[in-house]
Structure formats: structure tokens, C-alpha cells
Amino acid sequence: MNFHAHRTCKLPTIIVLSGLMLYSVRANYFTNTVPMSTARQGHASVLLSNGKVMTMGGYNGTGAITNRTELYDCSNRVWTSAAPMTFNRENFTATPLPNGMILAAGGQSVFYNVYPSNAELYNPSSGTWTTTGALKIPRNGHTATLLTNGIVLIAGGQATNGYPTSAELYDPATGNWTLTGTLNIGRSDHTATLLPNGKVLVTGGHGSAGSDFTSVQLYDPTTGNWTAGNALPEGREFHTDIALQNGNVLIFGGVGIHGVLTSAVLYQPTNGTWAPTGSMKKERYSPSAVLLPDGKVLVAGGYDDNNVVLSSAELYDPATGTWTATDSMKLARVTPQAVLLPNNQVLVAGGTGAAAFNDILSSAELYIIAATPLPPIVMSNPILMQNGSVQFGFTNSPGISFTILATTNISLPATDWTVLGTATEVSSGQFLFTDSSLIASQRYYRVRSP
User: Fold this and answer.
1) Residues 438/444/447/450 CA torsion (nearest 10 deg)
2) Neighbours of 290 (CB within 10 A)
3) Are 184 and 264 in a shared domain?
């Protein structure tokens, strides 16, 4: 997407702008958005029924676990404070219920292995939290899965006396928890995925029996029982699971017996077997991941095999079974929260950074998906200022990042133009750029996204 600006010292009060008004399909990229008011790690983020994202709880980096919550509105890209949770908690689960409420359960309320049994509900209509029935067993690092019948399954985690094999069901109609079938191995840092047949697939993790489990179990809501599934080809913990649009489950990364993994495997619910698929470009554990509207999977950040915090990101394409690199995040992050927004952008917020020990982040960024071409640039208010600066504005899609390039020789290829900086979005869809450098009698400008 390009336009050229020609300026001449012979006519110092005139800027002649000519537009090439080209449509351009941009590459996917990350761009900064407004930071949260609170730094968070071990927090939870969920999409509400009103289209806003609620981010809640977590460790704030100043020695405290918080109950503060805030809402992100993708229409104007701002955070606003919301009612605090009733309890401070981190490493808990937050589950959207069919009635639009959010169930927050368990986690860690203070340090030194104090795990709460309490649970609470957020009502988006009233903007309030209310307590609900308590877990039978206090736990942290567990999984929560919304079943097809609207009941929530809590499995595994860590308790004060080890790793419970118990699982529990929360019924929104009564607000009560009941124990259900028992896992064969107590585990934490595992994954739990709802399958198309209504069963729940639990994979890997670690527990009192050891680490890097190959163990797989299946929960059947119709019987309340757990049964063994075919073992993972390679044991892993701190890995990631994504239910694909074709019904298969993608398991990737994590920590194995020989270190951090690049490998990925597919679980096929139709026959209960595992199949290899392409490996990631970079080994990683504890990243963020989200299923995109086109069926691809975005994974970003995490730790590598040397515990270096990563900013890199990649995409998995189920059609080809391959991973490709995509734009890196603006900041390296571990365990950020990633949520697909109603506008098909991805919000990535918080987590642990790489700047220093205990670098807990409040920053947030958006992954912009190249779904449609950008509209042509519409120029407005070009000015040659008295100090010699050139200022111009243009309109385009809000939330997009635009890079400004310049040259004095229009015959040069675009790769040889000089990058001047990024346009500022002064209001929704309205962009402004000022070139304050001392330049020759004429200069040409180009706008590129990103």
C-alpha cells in the first residue's frame, strides 16, 4: 500500500500529494495495544457473551496474588476496571458457562502451598461476583472442561497433600460440586480436551509418581468413569492442547524426558490413536495458543530448552501438517493469556517477561490476521510546517500498524527506501505522521502495513 508525497522548496507553502491507492493484503503481525492496569502472571482471561474480554487474578509481581479484574473492549481497544473477585487467586480455572456467567475455581490464594476450595461466579449483566459451592478438594493447577450437558469437569491438579486422583463436577443449576470417577494417576500440568463424542481426553503431566507422563485417560460423562487411552508416543508436561476443526486434537511442545520438545502429535477420536505431525520450528513450553478462524493454530512465546523467554510465534496448518514462522510478539512472554476476539484479532496479555527476574507484565498486544485486503489510503490535511517538517494524515482500518518510508529517488526499489517510523492513530481509523528530519528539495513517501 503506497502513496508518494512530493515537496519543493520553491513552493514552501505547498505540498503536492499523489496517491497510488493500491489495495494490499498485509501479512499477519503483532502490534501493541493499551496495557492492563495490573501486571499479571498465572491469571485467566475469557471472552464474555457481550464480546469483551475479562482478565482476572494472578500474581502481580510485587509479592501479592490479586483479585483485581479488568475488561478489554476490542471496539475501542481500551481496558476498564471491573468488580474484583471475592477471593485472591492465581493458577485457577475460569470457565464460561452456557448461561453467560464465568465460573472461577480453585488455584492458589497466597504463597506457600495454600490452595482454596472456594469458587465464585461472575455475572456480566450485573457486573458482580457471587460465591458458589466450594470444591470438595482444594486444588491448584487443575483443568476445567465444560461438558456438552453444561456441567463443568474439574480434574487433577495439586493439593496440600500431593496430587489428587479425584475429579469433580459442577452443576450450574444447583451450584454444587459432586465427586465423579477417579483418575488412575494424580497429575498436574496436564491437558484436558473435550472430544466431539462428548468424552474428555486427559494427557500427560506430572505428579507424585514422576514426570513426563505418557499416560492418557478418557472421561465418559454418561458413566462417570475414567478409562485408559492409548499412551502418548512421547511423555510430556507443560504442553499445549488444541481441539481442531476436523475433530482431531493437536498436542504439542512441553517438557519431555530429554528436554523441551518441538514435536507434535494428533489424537484421532474416531479410532483413539495417535499420529505424528509436523514439528514446531522452535522448542517451547508454557506458551499461549489459540485456534484461528481459518482452522490454523497460533502459538506464541513460552520457554525454550535453556529457559530463555521467547517472543517468536508460529502457525500450524492442519491441511498440510506443517508449522511456519509468523511475526514475533513485541515482547517475549511465558504463560500469557491469548483470546480470539469477535473481530478475529487475537489479544495476548500479561505473563512473565525476559527483562529481569520476576518480570511480570502488564503489557498487551494484538495479533492482526490477514483476512481481507486493506482499503485504499485516503489522504487528508498535508502540511509543510514552518520548521521544515512535513505532516500528513490518512484514514484506514482502525487498529492497524502503518510504517512510513521515504526516498529522494523514486526509481529506487521499495527495499532501498528509508524507514522513518510508524504513523500514530490519533483517533479511530485516523492516522498522522510528522517527518521532522531535514530533507532535500523533494522527498517521496510510502506507507506500508505493517
Assistant:
1) -60
2) 18
3) yes
pLDDT single digits (tens) 348-364: 999 999 987 789 999 99
Cα 444 to Cα 267: distance, rounded to the nearest angstrom = 54
Over pLDDT 90: what percentage of the chain? Answer: 69
**Domain coverage including residue 351:** 32-368
Report the domain count for the chain: 2
Q: Do 153 and 100 reside in the same domain of the chain?
A: yes
| Spatial distance between the Cα atoms of 423 and 427, rounded to a whole number of angstroms | 12
Across all residues in the chain, what is the average pLDDT?
Answer: 89
Instruction: Name the domain boundary from 351, 368, 385.
Output: 368
Residues in the chain: 450
Candidates 250, 248, 249, 306; CA nearest to 282 is: 306
Q: What is the DSSP letter of 377?
A: P
Distance (Å, rounded) from C-alpha 442 to C-alpha 444?
7
pLDDT of the residue at 17: 37
* Three cell numbers, residue 287: 506458551
Cβ contact 329:20 at 8 Å: no
d(CA 99, CA 199): 22
CATH code for the domain in which residue 249 is found: 2.120.10.80
Are residues 236 and 262 located together in one domain of the fold? yes
